[in-house]
């Protein structure tokens, strides 16, 4: 069983959003092509779904500015602009993303006391989202991961898939993803490669 995991393709991470990834909306047509033509048995979309008082928001720290380094629950934390707040348009999936074909939505980042980059678990690894169990139940043995942003939520989701589902082949789809920082993207790809994540393009997937 082959699965596609779309990471956080939401308004908040696309141009005009509160935490826009450069060129973030360019992943949408590529993701749609994979959804339609990639031959996937299971399609999952993760959704950042923060309470308004999430501790990773700079607005929750007196005198802090967005992108400062701060602290959350005793751990170093990038302080982000308020983004993907539950029930707001910023948290909605990009309107052009073909959500009708998505089988399962995994929300994340609901605990105000810890950030959650990965679709599989919180950053402190104390709480699981349940996504690994869902994929196991679907008998998935191949997982392609893409979306926003390469150097944060996509990377950590791919690495957690390798750690938590060691029998599954995991691949990162490079042209269906965009990152925040160019050097961060290079480092993320190197780290994923080193941890056994395959690096592919959508054309390579569709040519299979």
UniProtKB/TrEMBL annotation:
It comes from Neorhizobium huautlense. Pfam families: Isochorismatase. Gene3D superfamilies: Isochorismatase-like. CDD domains: nicotinamidase (cd01011). The keyword Metal-binding applies. Its EC number is 3.5.1.19. Keywords: Hydrolase, Metal-binding, Pyridine nucleotide biosynthesis. Signal peptide: none annotated. NCBIfam families: PRK11609.1. It comes from the Bacteria. This is nicotinamidase. Residues 3-203 form the Isochorismatase-like domain. The keyword Metal-binding applies. Pathway: Cofactor biosynthesis; nicotinate biosynthesis; nicotinate from nicotinamide: step 1/1. InterPro entries: Isochorismatase-like_dom, Isochorismatase-like_sf, Isochorismatase_Nicotinamidase. It is an enzyme of class 3 (hydrolase). GO terms for molecular function: nicotinamidase activity. Belongs to the isochorismatase family.
